[in-house]
Recover the amino acids of this structure.
């Protein structure tokens, strides 16, 4: 089947208006939030129903054409980077909240529903959908499921997999099935749990039953100011060690504070080395006692100032500033590269030292805005994409930081996924047997390797265990030139 | 293969191994299938070597933890070597400041909680058979208890694992950190797989600080309709209880000592004294709004006692004197499906003149059924029980699932165990075939005879 025939067959199913194949239109889809890896898809289709998705997948399966599902394209690891010669299945037109069942505290949504829309829709009745990635005003719940997304408030309440009851899936051969459903405890292997976070490689999620959670009665939001990063890092570990589980515990360092303040004028202290945003949620009764304990830990760790968000408006502005921090980093340099790693939370002081040293060694500006409470770092490296040397240093510095995460007992991704970006870093944390087990799962679902191929698994298999794992620089270099 | 070969191989792989007596082997029979050997490896490496040998020589392996749930599932199609994890019982690492621990799967739940408690933490997972049962057994069966309302099930608490695969290789999934999306989430697949894809040998856990205070309120309700309405009212309130149970009269009698025809709603709160006080006050108001004045507050030793009963009951462990052993089942439906199952079970049991204990972890839609009579069930009871189970299963499967957990073999033969895998049988069979092509691990016991 040549390209024209393919487009014709897809258009016959979806209508011509739901199939894009003009080169000038396809260029929009060449990458997601990881902009340095690019690949133009063969065509982009916009199904509006599960049956449409299944019909498209059957055509592609029959013709052995690879495909990738895409939500809002906000992913940061190239998870929806189109495969060579592949078709992109965009789910943004499947954006209906099908059913909100407040009584049972769950909702049925299509994959293309924007994360924040569900919380807005249910907020009036006192409920929300917990996972709140920083891109939540744009990203889709289908994308959240593919990546098992987190967000600041997942510290207390868990990530996407903990809030997803069941998923309707179009398997890579076009069959439609449900893993889990509206009720919990489906019998057999937990295919639901296996699919969530599988980065679109085991099938395409078209609808999902997700949990709705009661909004807390009260909260306290603090901005705590430190003169030393080290002190802020110790305060994070101190709060957790005290047995307090904040709903969010975020750190922002001086570089990022400068960028955010310039963009959003919240009133962050520009001379601080680090600030923590600490949010406590729960019942009004007892919250101030807990707040007192948090303040004590911060003061023990030489906090300079502890400010409290006065009202909902100030709290909202504080969170808006935090969640759009990466965008603000764009003010510092022509390009920036956001990393995602994890360390045990007690190792935050260690990894912050490594990041500072790495920035010095490579003469790079690195800002940090991250989920300190669960050890999930996001160093954001500012660089000039026209400067090849700087681009190379950026990737090398990233590698060094991620290696340090692994050496400290952590992981190479906490919420952005392996995607295309980190395939060759997988050997840092998994050996060949571990990866083979994952590949076995892949073959059960997708024998032909059609659903989002080229992701997750290392490209250079001879390299496994030889310790030379690194981010895919050659592709980068080509993209950057 | 003669048994001498098996014994000599096991002797070389597992220190301290010796052939078991016929009586010991008989006591390790699984649903009537008697093994040829019982072995307890002392390390993950020795466990792996044992499984590798079994795989190479074509023996079937039956993993065993505390032995409390060995009758769960279908009878094995083969059972040669029972591999006990009892010696793999160490807490390998506990990092209180990270709220994580690494433990061997053969540790008993009681041993685990005691060990973690020394440093002020616990695993918020409280299934039936909690004391003698091992962590590995709980994970293999994905058993849960009242705390699932606030902390979820094992799949929400395990962050990493070392698993001995069917060919004896050791594979690692997940990691040591509480947030991690590297690779497929294989932990989920192994948990609840009844050891048919691999044997969980060591797991990394996400922990909670021990709460300062715990209290529960028991409200008495005239009927299941009122009880369910009350539970919905509490679910929709700002109380956010740590657990929320709906109990049938027989279960309630056990909790409060009053035997009559009333149902009960049990709401539990844990946390600091201040939040627990506020929640209890608010909860009491909600109970009264639901039309009951009979509300009991329980804390201190009483709290532990009632909680212990709530945990043990669904396992059939607390039947009235002279009763049992019971037939136990569980269903997973939505909360608004609980009432219908209670009615169906109560009416069915009245018709059959058998005892009926019901307990629902209401917000998660989990329902535990305990059916019993004086002495043991007889052949003449099976027709009635089978038809009751079929009715409950078909009502449950409209939304979710229904599993027979503990029943005489003859009854299981008639009604099966697992119920429907809902169009996913093919994928599950493929997973089993690829991960265990020789059928080494627990052959025949899982869904669809996998």
């Amino acid at each position: 089947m040549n390209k024209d025939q393919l487009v014709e067959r897809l258009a016959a199913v979806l209508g011509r208006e739901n199939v894009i194949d003009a080169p000038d239109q396809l260029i929009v889809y060449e990458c997601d939030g990881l902009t340095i890896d690019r690949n133009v898809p063969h065509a982009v289709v916009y199904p509006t129903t599960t049956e449409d998705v299944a019909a498209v997948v059957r055509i592609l399966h029959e013709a052995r054409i690879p495909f990738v599902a895409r939500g809002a394209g906000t992913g940061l690891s190239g998870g929806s980077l189109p495969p060579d010669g592949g078709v992109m299945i965009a789910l943004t037109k499947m954006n209906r909240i099908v059913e909100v069942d407040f009584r049972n505290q769950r909702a049925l949504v299509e994959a293309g529903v924007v994360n924040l829309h569900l919380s807005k829709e249910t907020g009036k009745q006192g409920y929300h959908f917990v996972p709140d990635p920083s891109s939540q005003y744009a990203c889709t719940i289908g994308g959240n499921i593919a990546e098992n997304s987190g967000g600041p408030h997942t510290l207390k309440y868990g990530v996407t997999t903990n809030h997803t009851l069941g998923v309707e899936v179009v398997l890579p051969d076009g069959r439609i099935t449900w893993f889990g459903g509206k009720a919990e405890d489906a019998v057999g292997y937990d295919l639901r749990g296996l699919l969530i976070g599988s980065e679109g490689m085991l099938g395409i999620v078209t609808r999902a039953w997700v949990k709705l959670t009661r909004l807390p009665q009260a909260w306290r939001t603090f901005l705590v100011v430190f003169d030393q990063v080290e002190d802020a890092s110790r305060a994070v570990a101190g709060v957790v060690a005290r047995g307090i589980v904040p709903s969010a515990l975020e750190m922002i360092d001086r570089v990022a504070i400068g960028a955010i303040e310039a963009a959003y004028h919240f009133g962050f202290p520009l001379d601080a080395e680090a600030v923590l945003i600490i949010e406590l949620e729960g019942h009004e009764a007892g919250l101030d006692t807990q707040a007192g304990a948090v303040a004590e830990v911060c003061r023990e760790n030489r906090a300079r100032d502890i400010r409290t968000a006065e009202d909902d408006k100030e709290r909202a502005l504080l969170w808006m500033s935090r969640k759009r921090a990466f965008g603000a980093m764009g003010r510092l340099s022509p390009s920036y590269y956001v990393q995602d790693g994890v360390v045990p939370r007690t190792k935050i002081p260690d990894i912050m030292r490594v990041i500072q040293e790495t920035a010095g060694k490579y003469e790079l500006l690195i800002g940090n805005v991250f989920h300190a409470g669960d050890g999930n770092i996001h160093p954001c490296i500012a660089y000039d994409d026209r400067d090849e040397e700087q681009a190379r240093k950026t990737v090398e510095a990233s590698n060094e930081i991620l290696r340090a995460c692994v050496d400290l007992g952590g992981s190479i991704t906490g919420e952005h996924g392996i995607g295309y970006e980190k395939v060759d870093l997988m050997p840092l944390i998994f050996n060949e047997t571990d990866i083979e087990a994952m590949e076995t799962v892949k073959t059960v679902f997708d024998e032909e390797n059609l659903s989002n191929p080229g992701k997750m698994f290392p490209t250079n298999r001879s390299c496994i265990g030889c310790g030379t794992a690194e981010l895919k620089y050659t592709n980068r270099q080509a993209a950057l030139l | 293969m003669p048994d001498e070969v098996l014994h000599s191989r096991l002797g070389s792989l597992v220190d301290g191994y010796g052939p078991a007596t016929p009586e010991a082997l008989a006591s390790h029979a699984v649903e009537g299938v008697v093994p040829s050997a019982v072995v307890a490896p002392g390390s993950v490496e020795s466990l792996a070597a044992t499984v590798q040998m079994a795989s190479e020589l074509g023996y079937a392996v039956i993993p065993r933890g505390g032995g409390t749930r060995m009758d769960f599932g279908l009878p094995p199609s083969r059972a040669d070597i029972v591999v006990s994890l009892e010696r793999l019982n160490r807490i390998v690492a506990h990092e209180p400041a990270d709220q994580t621990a690494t433990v061997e799967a053969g540790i008993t739940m009681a041993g685990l909680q005691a060990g973690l408690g020394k440093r002020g933490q616990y695993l918020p997972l409280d299934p039936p058979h909690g004391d003698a049962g091992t962590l590995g057994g709980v994970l293999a069966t994905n058993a849960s208890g009242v705390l699932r309302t606030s902390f979820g099930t094992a799949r929400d608490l395990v962050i990493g694992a070392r698993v001995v695969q069917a060919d004896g290789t050791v594979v690692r999934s997940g990691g040591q950190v509480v947030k991690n999306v590297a690779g497929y989430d294989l932990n989920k697949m192994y948990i609840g797989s009844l050891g048919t894809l691999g044997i969980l040998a060591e797991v990394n856990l996400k922990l909670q600080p021990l709460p300062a205070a715990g209290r529960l309120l028991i409200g008495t309700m005239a009927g299941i309709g009122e009880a369910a309405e009350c539970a919905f009212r509490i679910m929709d309130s700002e109380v956010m209880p740590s657990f929320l149970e709906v109990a049938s009269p027989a279960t309630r009698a056990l909790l409060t000592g009053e035997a009559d025809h009333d149902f009960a709603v049990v709401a539990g709160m844990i946390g600091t004294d201040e939040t627990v006080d506020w929640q209890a006050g608010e909860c009491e108001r909600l109970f009264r709004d639901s039309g009951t004045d009979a509300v009991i507050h329980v804390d201190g030793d009483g709290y532990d006692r009632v909680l212990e009963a709530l945990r043990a009951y669904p396992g059939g462990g607390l039947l009235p004197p002279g009763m049992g052993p019971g037939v136990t089942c569980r269903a997973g439906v939505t909360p608004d499906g609980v009432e219908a199952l209670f009615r169906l079970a109560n009416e069915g049991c009245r018709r059959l003149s058998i005892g009926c204990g019901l307990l629902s972890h209401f917000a998660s839609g989990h329902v535990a059924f305990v059916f019993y009579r004086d002495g043991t069930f007889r052949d003449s009871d099976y027709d009635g029980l089978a038809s009751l189970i079929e009715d409950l299963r078909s009502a449950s499967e409209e939304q979710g699932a229904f599993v027979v957990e503990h029943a005489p073999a003859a009854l299981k033969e008639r009604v099966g165990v697992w119920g429907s895998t809902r169009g996913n049988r093919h994928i599950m069979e493929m997973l089993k075939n690829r991960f265990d092509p020789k059928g080494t691990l627990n052959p025949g016991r899982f869904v669809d005879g996998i």
The domain at 1-215 of chain A is CATH 3.30.465.10 (Uridine Diphospho-n-acetylenolpyruvylglucosamine Reductase; domain 3). Chain A touches chain B through 87 residues (CB under 8 Å). Residues 388-407 of chain A form the longest helix (20 residues).
